[in-house]
């Protein structure tokens, strides 16, 4: 009865864990939720005069598109507002780009590990994966990358504070990748939701800003900097792709929520960067707390890098371990963790975890890590 | 470079016309916009205490799902909240149902004429169409329907104030169709956005409420009763379909806008039905104005039925006419109209228009129709 793609609609481990993790009393390192204290709350008084109740434009509110284009130009992406498509969350961008490029057998270069919900969407549309190992210290493996690029029809990269590895591609690597994509003519889909959450200095220019010839889609999100509940993201695309993506967006939801668009436009016109400056210390403190807790409780069992941005620690066990069994036992002990193999399209051959630090207090981070340690010993 | 489905991504005549129709001074019968005077404006004071800024549940806010299920039960759909999926506009439901059922060659029973944006989505995913002629007076052709049902893998119907024909299936017809779908085991996708806009008495129970065995998805919208800018709709599905649709929704946008969900929950808890009662006289007056204007200016050239609900007149010319040329000339004369053949998967063999009455004042309706008449004579 169903379309064949439904067989590829994987049951989401993440959904199941997140449901369990939201039980009262559970310390959750499993999700990727912003700190409650960091959520942006729109000013109700500024809703009074809005006129955003009628149908709107598929591409987004014109002023918001202008504001997003201006932010992108400041990052080194040559673009104008006509290339901006407002999204109902950047997950929608993954759906639209999947529809544009991917059918059964389309070969997609992905990082290993990679953002899970992107992999799931690509798989739903029939992608075959060309994984490129991303080391938390050295970044993408050059041999893997070149081999994959020879066959790839689309490359999906999250070069800035990658979820889950935390890795941030430096300038030289970005230049090399841009040149390779240009030479191969492979479209780049660059996903950049964590850029503003930079704890130790700003991130390098996006890779799409370094391309000369290859087609590209760049996307960002307001969920990490403002509020996920407002469900708004954006994509910016090479001009040749914009008409197709716009029609795909129209078929998906006609247009995005206009109230959220106006609230976020208000934030962009004054307050977004101040808000980010206010929330960064909260995240930095929690990141440092998790680093200290890992050192204190698990230092002899795991290796990890302190992330310079984003929301996650990527933790690798020195000895192989059944992380799914650990996850179950940890949940029973009131700690939610995410097994790392969920982020691979093929088994990684070692044991790892993704641990979120943004949604727990420093005290809970230490307590959760202590509970994990007692399970492991 | 692109997936094959992009070849099926039809350039949208509607988009082009709507862009032209929004120019100042143009009287538009082309779109399907609610009256500006009828738009629901949320009370900013009630936003103050909302806590809806974090990530939410894919299925929707629990209280909203309960409220929607209660409304559906009152319509005669046996369901509970677990079967409700909140949507980012009911267009998203069309995308999700397309993903669930349709791949290349899937045979879909559709009305002729049918809702254009549904046909476009089905086509994008590769549907072959089995059209059933819907007469504005007699409804769906029984012969067409039975022939189509023998081959169909999915049936898409908008039985209540159908867009564009305006037809409303009576009880006996709904019963017969439900029995036929049950016998054939063909899933029914019932799209019901106009139900509340009933000018001459409530619409009959939805067809899905009459099914015994066939799988089903029912969907509705808050865009016609409250405000399109809040971009919220819902679907209710047979329990076997809910897990798949939920995962498809998660891959599309994680969850719907939480602020809109809470604003619409507030409306459902008090005010929605009063709001609808207030706006119905506006629509009824405009419908009657268009009926009078058609009679006055075009009575000898066209046939039409006064719609008992919804937003459109379906107008058929007594003599064949190039409606696309008329559309161009009308635009130059400051009137936007929608050629009727856009709503068919195969040419209908006669000339027709869809005319929207909800977004123009009675004065503008008369003036627009006078301009059309002068072009036609």
Automatic annotation (TrEMBL), chains A, B:
Highest taxon above the source species: Bacteria
Swiss-Prot/TrEMBL cofactor(s): pyridoxal 5'-phosphate
Start and end residues of each Aminotransferase class I/classII large domain: 54-372
InterPro entries in the cross-refs: Aminotransferase_I/II_large, Class-I_PLP-dep_aminotransf, PyrdxlP-dep_Trfase, PyrdxlP-dep_Trfase_major, PyrdxlP-dep_Trfase_small
One protein family per Pfam: Aminotran_1_2
Keyword line: Aminotransferase, Pyridoxal phosphate, Transferase
One MF annotation (Gene Ontology) recorded for this entry: transaminase activity
Isomerase found in the keyword field: no
Protein name per its UniProtKB record: Putative 8-amino-7-oxononanoate synthase
Lineage of producing organism: Bacteria, Pseudomonadati, Pseudomonadota, Betaproteobacteria, Neisseriales
